[in-house]
Amino acid sequence: MKAAVLFEYEQPVQTVDVELMDPKPGEVLIKIAAAGVCHSDLHVIKADLPLPVPIILGHEGAGVVEAVGEGVTRVQPGDHVVLSWVPECGECYFCKISRYDMCDTAAALAISGAQRDGTTRFSLNGEDVHQFSMTGTFAEYTTVPQESAIPIRKDVPLELAALVGCGVMTGVGAVINTAKVRPGSSVVVIGAGGVGLNVIQGAALAGAEKIIAVDLVDGKLSLARTFGATHTINAKEKDVVMSVLDYTDQLGAEYAFEVIGRPETIAQAYNCLRKTGTAVVVGVAPPNAEVSINAFSIPSQAKTLTGTWYGQANPRVDLPRLLDLYKAGKLKLDELMSKSYDLSQINEAFQDMVDGKVARGIIKF
Ligand code: APR
Ligand code: ZN
Ligand code: ZN
């Protein structure tokens, strides 16, 4: 079977034939139908998320269960599933308090690139091939822990369902689960890419009055309007903080979301806020990056600076719910999928994302 493998950091991904083992106890074999191309995959290529290579990239995907290992109770062959890239262990402190997004075990396994027992399911000429976050969706088939295989309704096309597996969950969840945006609020979203557009539509869903989208690419800003932005700022042309003040009666916004992963824009999100406002960092900056914030403002302006990982998801509840919202006409998925590719065109798909040409690129199998 074919998979897109990163062999060396900063190098193109190669589509090669790999071997896949049968699922072990508690694991599920999935035939992937579609996989979204997310900036986090690029973070791995750039070593901003330093994971062991060779590794099969892709963590946003959907498909059909082909086979299940011993003891699997959550799904059966034929089920449609969306992949969750944070398979909760159920046993660690954070799982006990129902913060599955913070599962310690899932975080450690993601860094190892292996499955729960510490071994890999993929290999190439006898050498281990790792999986991104226990998923590895840029592959015709993949084996994942059953906690990663979230059963979904069958009346949503799998290429659209794939999108909720990362970008939609992360963006909408940042608004609904983490910030808990109140109706009538003002919201700034810095970075209107695949995830940022979902923060924007999450804010619209939450009833925000002003949704101010910030990007460097005009095409992204017009997409942002489609997803519910009421104001747009091209950060190449205008000062972001000054413009936000102008749009909010010189108060600043009540909520700001950083959806890029850069220290400068994280500080910008904080600086866009009015006193008592909340900034949520969605973007993943390199592990050693530091953010500079004025110290006096911390007590004197009483803002909240927080972050969100996977939209603070409870995947078994939230992923199916997002698809219900889509079917109810309240969530846009079709508009996100701007271009589809064959697996062999994966590097082109990454380039289109870097060039700002797509909302979300989708690999179709
Ligand atoms: N100011 C404003 N917008 C910017 C800036 C900047 N300085 N730099 C980049 N952008 C815009 C890009 O033009 C693009 O539209 O940010 C957007 C990033 O979008 P994508 O490349 O599609 O990335 P996405 O998949 O949305 O991921 C964004 O969220 O989950 C994390 O790991 C992910 O860190 C990544 C971030
Ligand atoms: Zn992602
Ligand atoms: Zn856990």
Task: Explain how this protein is built.
The protein folds into 2 domains: 2-165 and 335-364, Medium-chain alcohol dehydrogenases, catalytic domain (Quinone Oxidoreductase, Chain A, domain 1), CATH 3.90.180; 171-308, Rossmann fold (3-Layer(aba) Sandwich), CATH 3.40.50. 29% of the residues lie in helices and 27% in strands. It is built from 11 helices and 19 strands. The strands form 3 sheets. Strands 4, 6, 7, 10, 11, 18 and 19 form a 7-stranded mixed beta sheet that branches. The protein has a 6-stranded mixed beta sheet with strand order 2-1-5-9-8-3, with no helix packed on it. Helix 6 (218-226) links the parallel strand 13 and strand 14. Helix 4 (158-179) packs across helix 5 and helix 4 (158-179) crosses helix 10. It is globular. Residues 11-363 form the Enoyl reductase (ER) domain.
